[in-house]
Amino acid sequence: xxxxxxxxxxxxxxxxxxxxxxxxxxxxxxxxxxxxxxxxxxxxxxxxxxxxxxxxxxxxxxxxxxxxxxxxxxxxxxxxxxxxxxxxxxxxxxxxxxxxxxxxxxxxxxxxxxxxxxxxxxxxxxxxxxxxxxxxxxxxx
Length: 141
What we know:
alpha+beta
């Protein structure tokens, strides 16, 4: 998910381009203005943590772009491209390392496991909004 700061700072194309250049396949995308209830459900694992309310307030402050990606080791590849939560500690070349400003303004959220990915995709997409498809270079991979 591209958070409000990615949209507000006009970094959507740059971030999606990095994911595509990695060889990942975009199978679902839409812009949504997340409700507080949906944000609390997305970040339920952080309920009770000191940053929870600020995180929920932030992701509901502006539209976000939710996406679903496919590819070889997609979750691990995306996590590597995203970089660590704190942009100061994130590797140069990662999305957060190059563009993130703080642990809140870190541009992007990505699932940390297959189970999380399934849960998060089901929060935002119906089956008819996901498009698994062939790309011309699929045979090379």
